[in-house]
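Practice problem: predict the structure.
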Amino acid sequence: MERIHSLLWGPALLAVLIGLGLYFGAKTGWFQLHFVRILKQTLFYRKPGESREEGISSRRAASAALAGTVGTGNIIGVSAALLTGGAGAVFWMWVSALLGMGIKYAEILLAVFYKKKSPRQQGGGPMYYMEQGLHCKPLAVWFSLAAVGAALTGGCFTQVNAVCSVLGEDNMLVCLLAGGVIALLAGLCIFGGIHRISRVTAVLVPVFSILFLGAGLLVIGCSATQIPAAFAAIFQQAFSLESVSGGLMGTGLAISLRMGMARGIFSNEAGVGSSPMVYASGKESDPVRQGLWGVLEVFLDTIVICTVTALAILLTVGISPTQTPMELVNLAFTSVLGNWAEPVLGISIFLFAFAALLSWCFYGEQGIRYLGKSKTGITVYRCFFILFCFLGALFPSQSVWLLGDCCNGFMLLPNVIALLLLRKQVVEVTRASSLYQFLRRKEKNGKLLGQISQKSQKS
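Answer:
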C-alpha cells in the first residue's frame, strides 16, 4: 500500500491538481476567493418563493457534504501529516485548500449542470458528467466502482478506526463494542436515504464544529504568545530540504509537500468527486451558486478546522515522532484542558466520524445506483457498509489510513481526467451565469467607487 500511495500521490498528480486549481482560479477571475460575496450568496441567501423541485435544500446538501469532508482527517489526519511531513505540511494544506476551492467549485458546477432527473428521484455526480459531457462510459464506471470501494474503506474504516484510537486500540473488547454501536446507529440512519442523512448531518455538523473549534481555540488562546513562532516554523519547514525525521537532505520538501497535499485533499476532498454527488441531489438548479457552497465547504474544512488542530499541537507539545497521531492530539489538548480533554476529544471525534460515515454511505450508494438500479443491490450495499463499520474496529490505524488515501486516489484519477477535458466548459458556464456577471459588476463598481474616493480625498 505504501508503494501504491507513493505512485498515486506522486509529483505528476500533484502537479496536475496544482495546475487545475490555478487554471480555474485564473479563468474565473479568482471570484471564488471573495468570501464576503460568497457568504451573501450561500449562508445569507434566501431564494424567493418555494421551489417545486424534488431534492434537499442547499443548506442540507452543504451540511451532508461538509459532514463527509469534515471527518477524522481534520484531527488525526492533520496530526499524522505533522508527524510525517513536519510543520511545513500545514503550509501545503493551505495551498491545497486555496487551489482546491477552484477544483471543488468546478466539479460541483459540472455535477449540477449535468444533473440527472427522474420521476422518483434527483441525483447526479461525476459519473454523469463523464458519461454525458465526455461520452466516456468506461471512465464513469471506473469512478463509480472506485466510489463504492472508497466508501467502504476510506469513508468507513478510517472513521471507525479513529473512534477506536481514542478508546484505545489495545483494548479489543472496547473497540468491538464501539464498532457494534456505530454500526447499529449507522444502520438506523442509512436506511432512511439522503433525506434522513441530511436531517441528521444538519444537526451534527454545527454541534461538532462548535465543540471542537471552541476547545481548539481555547488551547490556542492559552499559548497565544507563541503563535508567531509557530507560523515561522510552518513557513520555514515548508521549504526545508531536511526531513523532520533527520533523513536524507532534499527529502524534507518532497515529504512535506506530498503529505500536506495528500492530507489536505483527504480532508477537503477537492477533486475526489464525492461532494458533487450530494450537491447534485439538492433543489438548487444554478450551477454557479451551488458551486459557491463547495468553496465555503473547503474554506471551513481546511483553512479553519485543520489549522486549529495544527496550531493546537504546534503551540503546546510540538512534534514528537515517538507518539502516535492520536496520542499527539491528546497531549496537546490535555496540556491545557486537563482531564476535560479526553471527553471533549472523544465526543468530537465520534460526531465527526459518525457524520462522515453517513455521507460516505450515500456517495457509495450513488455509485451503486449508476452501475445498476436494482433495489436489491442498494440494500446489499447498505448491509455491507454496516458490516464494514464493525470491521473497521479490528484493523491497525496505519494500514487503515494508507488504504483510505489509496482509495481516494483511485476516485480522484478519473475525476481529474474529466475535469481536465471539461475545463473550458466550466469557464463558459461560469461566465455565462447571471450570478457571475452580477458579482463581477459589483467588484468593478467597488473598485470604481474606491478610485473616486481616493481622488476626492487627494483633492
